[in-house]
Amino acid sequence: MIWNPCDQNASSCSPIVSHIAGEVDALCKKEFCADFENVEEVAKAIECFLKENRETLFVDSKYLMLLASQAMSSLGQGMSARRLLIFGSGLVAPAEWQVTGGNAMWVLDLKRMIVGRDVSLELLLFNSLNVILDAISDVWDETKGRGSLGLKHVCCVASALLAKPEDNKDSRMLAAEINARCKNKLKQIAMERNWADFPSIINLDS
Question: What is the pTM of this model?
Fold first, then answer.
């Protein structure tokens, strides 16, 4: 998306502007938007873009978050852009149940990260996991790291990357490596953020 300053015809009270501004405010806390005060201008510009392309009647919320993410990225708000994309797309979401101890679980749906069958995507997957966990790490700040990260569709993602059945030895090994990488990354984040603990990894395929 190209930044479009023609926001004079966009109403700040429109449902689209209100929705985008509300989501940005909810997902990109002050920790990430401390130096950025033009959220409403971003929302107005997106509405203007949609009107120009006659897309304002039925707009999917995830599509709006994608556009907002692109706009924020173009304005140098990389962390906020990543959070919008991660949470707004449903890639990461809170679980519908509570885990042991009353600490909430956040679920990472790995299937949403796969775009094709290519062994070279394995490296991209691990790099993306690091970026995602860095971007969402603040959700465990309040509990000082206590809680859980649920991994969804680990086995089918490993199978897709290697183009082998899920019960194949190599697929099982890659699935185990994905779990291990997430665990090690969360341990690293725990040290960086001075947590007392780090989130446990729960394989939701089991």
Answer: 0.77
Structural tokens at position 162: 């290697």
C-beta atoms surrounding 67 within 10 Å: 23
Type and span of the H or E element at 107 = strand 104-109
Q: What share of the chain is helix, strand, coil (3-state, %, to 5)?
A: 55, 10, 35
Task: Report the alpha-carbon distance of residue 91 to residue 107 in Å, rounded.
Answer: 8
The pLDDT tens digits of the residues spanning 27-69 come to 776 556 645 567 788 888 888 888 887 765 667 788 888 888 8
Pairing of strands 104-109, 92-98: antiparallel
SS3 of residue 150 by DSSP: strand
Quick one: 4 exposed, middle or buried, by C-beta within 10 A (0-12, 13-18, 19+)? middle
